[in-house]
């Protein structure tokens, strides 16, 4: 049913565009649906709402680009196996260009999401005029979701392209992105100047506060509705936004309310380690997730599909019949080797010294023994194996047969820790077996995030003991311990030693826990930006396979794509580009 609604909504959106005034689209289309005839009823609005949700997994969003084509590169979650795309390498070196193909996908799809939300909000006002009281209640819920979704798209536009985050009260007067509150049905309405960063965040917050009111008390119980955001998803996002704008008083109240009133709880570790691979979805920890399903009709990277193509790009490599690596799909990117060390892994390397061929026959068996012991004894952060698949220790299923994970394909540096990603890949087969349409839900906002944001807020408002407790709750779950009880694994202070040995994370439990808990979940880049640690992170990672990382202070903001610069006469480029 959801897929049908999405397809209908896409047709409707095409009709709405075709029905715009002739000065904007100089083509007559007698088969287009006129705005006077659509939308006219609640079911029409639901179709438009399905389209607004679907854009969250378009090619430029979580259908492909979020992560492998963006944040994974900027924060060095990944390194590149594929060396055939110069702009991909440049982005991994923090040298993005206005002509980058990936940015040319992300920017328009985020704006398409905004436009769909604005179209829906205009439809809400129209349909509401002659609606019954029962329909008005349903329309209010639709409006609340539309406002949440518009804030969601603006969150990425502002964090990717805003000239700065608000840090220590500064940056709010710098360039954000244009604010579009209505449907741009005329070319002149697309020629909008950039608002300030503060105005963009205020716009996001205002949308979320309205959505919070409209969705208050709403619980989605039907299976067909479980993808819809509720009051607590909105409130959690709002609390996160307050942290990102350093509004600590509102953050404390809002996040505290989510923790005490939402009924949410951290899931056990055995659930946590599987919930990124299509299992245990919509669980007690989840506040908002993108609902995806394997789609054998449409491959990912399009909102016509119910799945995502991200898994194809990050797909594991496995041991083939002759003992050498085989790509399970495209296998373009793998976890940067420095990340393995950051989890506390220091068990040597899987190949014997002097190995010249990535063959399983060259694996050091003592390494396997030590690795299994480290995992069982938890001397390494257990979240390493939630986020990554270890060569020659872990395995995957290929055409119904279990195959060992291999040294990542095409990595000629045989002394490199070339592991595979685990989150958001298909554990029961290859990505090609599911039509490159991975069905693992994206857990976009969950209680562990709220706990750590709340801990940060408490620390910034003078409650270090409270902050430490919420950091430890997240850590305890990682070690399969009772969340609410003190343990021997607890950090003793906010500067206690972590599993990391680098200068950025080794004595900062808050930063380390955010990095380790959400590794591979598209969060770390925003923390790097708002904490202004990009230079320190670049110094830690040093290089990618394509060359050295070259950090500049302007790299926190991405370049406005060249297509926008040429089509909007009022657009100004970010400094440094």
From TrEMBL:
<keyword id="KW-0732">Signal</keyword>
<protein>
    <submittedName>
        <fullName>RagB/SusD domain protein</fullName>
    </submittedName>
</protein>
<dbReference type="InterPro" id="IPR012944">
    <property type="entry name" value="SusD_RagB_dom"/>
</dbReference>
<dbReference type="GO" id="GO:0009279">
    <property type="term" value="C:cell outer membrane"/>
</dbReference>
<feature type="signal peptide">
    <location>
        <begin position="1"/>
        <end position="18"/>
    </location>
</feature>
<keyword id="KW-0998">Cell outer membrane</keyword>
<dbReference type="Pfam" id="PF07980">
    <property type="entry name" value="SusD_RagB"/>
</dbReference>
<keyword id="KW-0472">Membrane</keyword>
<feature type="domain" description="RagB/SusD">
    <location>
        <begin position="320"/>
        <end position="577"/>
    </location>
</feature>
<feature type="domain" description="SusD-like N-terminal">
    <location>
        <begin position="24"/>
        <end position="219"/>
    </location>
</feature>
<comment type="similarity">
    <text>Belongs to the SusD family.</text>
</comment>
<dbReference type="InterPro" id="IPR011990">
    <property type="entry name" value="TPR-like_helical_dom_sf"/>
</dbReference>
<dbReference type="Pfam" id="PF14322">
    <property type="entry name" value="SusD-like_3"/>
</dbReference>
<dbReference type="InterPro" id="IPR033985">
    <property type="entry name" value="SusD-like_N"/>
</dbReference>
């Amino acid at each position: 049913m959801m897929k049908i609604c999405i397809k209908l909504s896409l047709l409707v959106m095409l009709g709405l565009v075709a029905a715009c005034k002739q000065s904007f689209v100089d083509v007559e289309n007698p088969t287009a649906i006129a705005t006077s005839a659509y939308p006219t009823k609640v079911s029409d609005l639901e179709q438009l709402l399905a389209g607004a949700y679907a854009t969250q997994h378009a090619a430029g969003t979580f259908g492909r680009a979020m992560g492998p084509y963006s944040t994974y590169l900027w924060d060095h979650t990944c390194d590149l196996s594929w060396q055939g795309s110069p702009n991909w390498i440049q982005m991994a070196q923090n040298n993005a260009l206005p002509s980058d193909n990936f940015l040319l996908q992300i920017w328009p799809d985020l704006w398409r999401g905004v436009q769909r939300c604005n179209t829906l909000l205009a439809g809400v006002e129209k349909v509401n005029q002659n609606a019954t009281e029962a329909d008005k209640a349903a329309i209010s819920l639709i409006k609340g979701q539309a406002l949440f979704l518009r804030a969601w798209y603006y969150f990425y536009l502002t964090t990717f392209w805003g000239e700065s985050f608000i840090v220590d009260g500064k940056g709010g007067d710098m360039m954000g992105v244009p604010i579009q509150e209505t449907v741009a049905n005329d070319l002149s309405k697309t020629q909008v100047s950039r608002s300030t960063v503060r105005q963009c965040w205020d716009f996001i917050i205002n949308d979320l506060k309205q959505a919070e009111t409209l969705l208050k008390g709403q619980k989605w119980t039907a299976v067909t509705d479980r993808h819809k955001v509720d009051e607590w998803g909105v409130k959690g996002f709002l609390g996160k936004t307050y942290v990102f704008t350093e509004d600590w008083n509102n953050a404390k109240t809002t996040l505290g309310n989510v923790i005490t009133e939402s009924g949410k709880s951290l899931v056990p570790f055995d659930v946590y380690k599987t919930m990124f691979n299509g299992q245990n979805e919509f669980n007690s920890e989840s506040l908002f997730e993108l609902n995806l399903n394997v789609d054998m009709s449409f491959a990912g990277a399009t909102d016509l599909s119910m799945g995502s193509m991200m898994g194809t790009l990050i797909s594991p490599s496995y041991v083939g019949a002759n003992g050498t690596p085989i790509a399970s799909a495209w296998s373009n990117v793998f976890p940067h080797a420095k990340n393995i060390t950051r989890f506390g892994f220091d068990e040597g390397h899987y190949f014997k010294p002097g190995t010249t061929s990535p063959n399983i026959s060259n694996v050091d068996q003592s390494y396997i023994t030590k690795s299994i012991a480290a995992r069982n004894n938890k001397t390494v952060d257990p979240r390493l194996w939630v986020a990554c698949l270890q060569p020659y220790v872990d395995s995957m299923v290929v055409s119904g047969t279990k195959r060992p994970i291999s040294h990542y394909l095409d990595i000629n540096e045989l002394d490199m820790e070339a592991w595979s990603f685990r989150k958001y890949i298909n554990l029961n087969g290859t990505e090609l077996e599911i039509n490159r349409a991975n069905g693992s839900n994206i857990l976009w906002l969950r209680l562990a995030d709220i706990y750590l944001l709340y801990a940060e807020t408490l620390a910034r408002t003078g409650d270090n003991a409270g902050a430490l407790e919420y950091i430890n709750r997240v850590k305890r779950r990682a070690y399969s311990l009772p969340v609410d009880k003190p343990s021997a694994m607890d950090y003793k202070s906010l500067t206690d030693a972590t599993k990391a040995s680098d200068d950025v994370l080794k004595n900062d439990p808050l930063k380390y826990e955010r990095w380790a808990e959400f590794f591979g979940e598209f969060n770390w880049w925003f923390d790097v930006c708002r904490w202004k640690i990009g230079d320190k992170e670049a110094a830690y990672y040093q290089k990618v396979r394509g060359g050295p990382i070259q950090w500049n202070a302007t790299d926190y903001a991405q370049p406005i794509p060249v297509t926008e610069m040429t089509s909007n006469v009022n657009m100004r480029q970010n400094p440094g580009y």
